[in-house]
Design goal:
The complex is a heterodimer.
Chain A lengths: L3 E4 L2 E4 L5 E7 L5 E7 L5 E8 L2 E5 L6 E7 L2 E6 L8 E8 L8 E2 L3 E5 L1
Parallel strand pairs in A: 2-11
Antiparallel strand pairs in A: 1-3, 3-8, 4-5, 4-9, 5-6, 7-8, 9-10, 9-11
Chain B lengths: L3 E2 L4 E5 L4 E7 L6 E7 L6 E7 L4 E4 L2 E6 L4 E6 L8 E8 L10 E2 L3 E6 L1
Parallel strand pairs in B: 2-11
Antiparallel strand pairs in B: 1-3, 3-8, 4-5, 4-9, 6-7, 7-8, 9-10, 9-11
The chains are: A mainly beta, B mainly beta.
């Protein structure tokens, strides 16, 4: 009954590969986010979707493409992985009508070798 | 361009004493502030928040203080317990609560509470 679940939890892959991270929330929230925590520990926003519509797209390489098939899911696809993509990626959700906090998933640790 | 700064990467306190975690921000458009707590291999979890119209918010052992003129907030934990050992993130948001709302986070402070 996890509120925000991400899969996989760990992902090790070679440079140049394409990979996807999946996120699902069962809270009925209408807004979902992807954040990246890099080696410097900053949590930086990448994307935000509201009811399947892309709302926020920070300066992220085109190799990153979010996809939201419905408001409960927000997946992140990464093409041509680079060493610098190694980070922990967090999915989060929020109900914009009922508060300011996010509910986070447990993160996906991506290691590109 | 760090809009939210947590200048202390780590803090160590004794069990039962007070823990004070600090956060500074530069964007004067921020008007809502939150603290998140993160254990290893888990996502951040919401702890406490404060609106810019207040200068203090208390929830049990946790109190957040906001000094708008100094663009500074702090989280006080009294008394500190070993289970409080975690990374604490300060976060801030602007006035929009709508669909383009986002949180800006600091780098976090690792709190260690020693028994």
């Amino acid at each position: 009954d996890t509120a925000v679940s991400q899969t996989p939890k760990y992902l090790v892959t070679q440079m140049g590969n394409d990979k996807s991270i999946k996120c699902e929330q069962n809270l009925g929230h209408d807004t979902m986010y992807w954040y990246k925590q890099d080696s410097k520990k900053f949590l930086k926003i990448m994307f935000s979707y509201n009811n399947k519509e892309l709302i926020i797209n920070e300066t992220v390489p085109n190799r990153f493409s979010p996809k939201s098939p419905d408001k409960a899911h927000l997946n992140l696809h990464i093409n041509s992985l680079e060493l610098g993509d190694s980070a922990v990626y967090f999915c989060a959700s929020r109900d914009h009508g009922s508060g300011y906090g996010y509910t986070f998933g447990s993160g996906t640790r991506l290691t590109v070798v | 361009d760090q809009q939210v700064k947590q200048n202390s990467p780590s803090l160590s306190v004794q069990e039962g004493r007070i823990s004070i975690l600090n956060c500074d921000y530069t964007n004067s458009m921020f008007d809502y502030f939150l603290w998140y707590k993160k254990y290893p291999a888990e996502g951040p979890t919401f702890l406490i928040s404060i609106s810019s119209i207040k200068d203090k918010n208390e929830d049990g052992r946790f109190t957040v203080f906001l000094n708008k003129s100094a663009k500074h907030l702090s989280l006080h934990i009294v008394p500190s317990q070993p289970g409080d050992s975690a990374v604490y993130f300060c976060a801030a948001s602007g006035k929009s609560g709508g669909s383009n709302y986002k949180l800006t986070f600091g780098k976090g402070t690792l709190l260690t509470v020693n028994p």
